Amino acid sequence: MHGKTFSKLYDFAGKYRNVNISKGYSTFCQVRFLEQTSNGIFDKLRNDEYLKNYFEKSKEEFAEKLAYYMCELIALHPFLELNGRILRLFFDMIATYNGYEYIDYKDSLIIEDGDNKYIKASIDCMTGKDNKMYQIILNGLKKAK
Ligand SMILES: Nc1ncnc2c1ncn2[C@@H]1O[C@H](COP(=O)(O)OP(=O)(O)O)[C@@H](O)[C@H]1O
Ligand SMILES: [Mg+2]
Fold it and tell me: What CATH class has 32-140?
């Protein structure tokens, strides 16, 4: 998706980054582990059938899964740039497939003590804590009419 969306704009589109990067105090997955870690996450997602079967299940169950994968992929940060945008689009597509509107992140953009809630939730993802992301996604999921 990253490649298809951005290849006309950037040479790095769809390619694993080849430099280690960090934001604030967070250092994302090291380059030498990117491919194997990414494969591990997407193997798991494949075993979860790409979350295609959440139409009948509860919003809470769906939000838990989305938050888990969102956090894993935030910590992976596979591309040099545009990770945030493509990740949210990716999960929006899964949400719409299951009968939801695009996830509404509006409330998570409110800034408190310097960072917004989405960034604070992303920082927690770095240590495997996905509860803040779960709350954001649960709050942002609405069934499509
Ligand atoms: N300090 C941080 N710790 C962990 N993750 C962060 C931090 N700051 C930002 N992020 C994550 O990185 C994403 C931004 O990555 P980036 O590649 O710049 O994407 P984009 O350009 O689309 O915003 C944010 O959406 C957030 O999930
Ligand atoms: Mg950016």
Answer: mainly alpha
